[in-house]
Automatic annotation (TrEMBL):
Residues 173-201 have a biased composition (Basic and acidic residues). Pfam families: PWI_CCDC43. Residues 5-79 form the CCDC43 PWI-like domain. Belongs to the CCDC43 family. Residues 121-214 are annotated as: Disordered. Keywords: Coiled coil. This is Coiled-coil domain-containing protein 43. Residues 202-214 have a biased composition (Basic residues). Residues 150-160 have a biased composition (Polar residues). It comes from the Eukaryota. It comes from Takifugu rubripes (Japanese pufferfish).
Length: 214
């Protein structure tokens, strides 16, 4: 499989020095050789292509060794780059995991605080209704008339608690939905960014291949 297009600065520096030692124009052939290494699938294909380029500058007895040396160096550089990318990715994943856990803790704390506030509101409402009932009962006792208010008050208390509980649940659900939408949008932006980068890399490869054929 062809090597991915990455930052080839370290390898490119070595390649330029090697071309200088062979008295090959680095400005003309450096990028061309780099394109061959990136585009060709197998080492045999790479070697054939490099041989076609360097045979005009290197002795026939030495050109094969030079081609193999360049390919070996390219392979080693790719392995080192892959290991570094894997290490960097692991570090990024660890940081992302830590941030996610911290975010979850913050969300739980906010939900807990709002839940507590909701319960306090229910209790305050219940206390107000209870005070009103006590006043009504005192008036009833003074007048000697008793109304069936206790059952109505119990019904009111239950209704108030249910309404406040539903409102609290709606706020929690809205927050969770917003967080999920934020994560979905973030993932989509990353996908779009990768797709755009992939299109650019493919277009660059086609351009380099066209220049090489000319």
């Amino acid at each position: 499989m062809a090597a991915p297009m990455t930052d080839t600065g370290e390898f490119e520096s070595w390649l330029n020095d090697r071309l200088d030692s062979l008295e090959v124009d680095r400005d003309v052939y450096g990028t061309y050789i780099l394109g061959v290494l990136q585009e060709e699938e197998t080492d045999e294909e790479k070697e054939d292509a490099l041989n076609g380029i360097l045979s005009a500058f290197v002795d026939e007895d030495s050109v094969e060794d030079v081609c193999k040396q360049i390919i070996k160096r390219w392979t080693e550089w790719n392995h080192q780059s892959a290991a570094k990318r894997e290490s960097d990715d692991a570090e990024v994943r660890a940081i992302a995991s830590m941030i996610e856990k911290q975010a979850q803790i913050v969300v739980k704390q906010k939900v807990s605080a709002e839940s507590k506030t909701g319960k306090e509101a229910v209790l305050a409402q219940y206390a107000n209704i209870t005070d009103e009932e006590d006043e009504a009962e005192e008036e009833e006792s003074a007048s000697g008339t008793k109304f069936p208010g206790s059952e109505q008050s119990l019904f009111k208390n239950t209704n108030v608690e249910e309404v406040l509980s539903r409102q609290l649940q709606k706020r929690i659900q809205a927050r969770e939905d917003a967080q999920k939408k934020k994560e979905t949008d973030k993932m989509q932006r990353e996908k779009d960014k990768l797709a755009k980068q992939d299109r650019k890399e493919k277009e660059k490869k086609r351009t380099q291949k066209g220049e090489r054929k000319r």
